[in-house]
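Dear colleague,

Thank you for sharing your sequence with our group. We've completed the structure prediction you requested, and as agreed, I am returning the results in plain text so they can be pasted directly into your records. Please verify that the sequence below matches your submission; if there's any discrepancy, let me know and we will rerun it promptly.
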Amino acid sequence: MLTRRTLLFILFAALICCNSTTIFAEAAVQLQLTMIGNGVGPYYALAGQSTQLKIEIFNVGPNDVFLIQGEAYLDPELNGNWQLAHSEDLGNFHLTKLESAVWTFNLQMPSHIQAQNLTNGVPQVELLAKIAYSTNDGKHSATSQFLLSVPGAAIKQSDYSIYQIVLGVVLITIAVIIVKNAKSRSIRKAQS
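Please find the predicted structure tokens below.
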């Protein structure tokens, strides 16, 4: 029984590590953010140029919301260091349930941006959009990430898969050690 509990704990810990952004995200996000453009993406933004982007802000919750601030973030060096690329006051724009608004803004894509070559074609980066809004119970924020194709960007190969493999090997090694220790304790108890 101890072995099963231990294994369940390890699997639960691994799931938390792999999905921490999903698990610890704001529970009651009321806004849904969708980029408007050519199909379902990716959306194009030329390196070193300003590109107009449109994000639909849809109120899916039961309460009225007032849109306060729109912010767009980029990670130009692909090192997890998100930098504010655009910020705009949304003027407390009022949305009732199932209403939407379109936030149109010009994004200045840095010329030195490094992009992942995920498709063996046009390099791609992610845009993080954040909308601050208020409801009757206070201020909140909704975020969403969008894939941008960035012609003219320097290509940087993604090495996330290596980290995932290393994390998996470490977790499996820890699980094996815990199981062996539990079995050896069970054998010792049975012998004594």
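Summary note from our side: Residues 20-27 have pLDDT under 50 and may be disordered.

Kind regards,
the structure core
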